[in-house]
Amino acid sequence: MYCEQCGKRISETTKFCPYCGNAVGIVDSVQSQQSVKQEISTPASPETRQEQKYVGFWARFAAWFLDCILVIIFIFPAFLVREFVNYYGGILLYWVLCILGHIIILVLWFTKQASIGKMAISAKIVDARTGKAPTKGQLIGRYFAYWLSGFPLGLGFLWIAFDSKKQGWHDKLAGTAVIYVGDN
To answer: Which of 69, 148, 153, 167 is least surrounded by CB atoms within 10 angstroms?
Structure first.
């Protein structure tokens, strides 16, 4: 048996294709097979779901800038400790706060689908294919792909300005997109 969506060979007892996630079912007639296939492969119509509006480069830059300001405020006590109390204690506190900051970002992504900056501009991270919440694996992959987006002179972030879905390299690698929430 082969998957109707990706064409790969799958077990006859499986309910979902292990390669693409397509639902596999036994269908009695050709007409019901076509309706099931249409339900699975066709995204919801604009009448049943709000159209997604992708967040562009400058709005995402503003969200990132706000996040950076919050991180600086968050790690500032480490600099005070280093300068006025204990140099090595300040460095240790700095690294602890940096690691904690990265953990907070991931926790916000897992729970709210957005950083504080994205929440401020009413945006969230979604699965680019389904428009639903991304998996934890996608979000972790997106986090590590940030480094790839930033490494070559930030070109992976600049890509957002030119992409039709406003995806940076990190979004493309993780299969995510950033959309507006509500009436933006």
So the answer is: 153
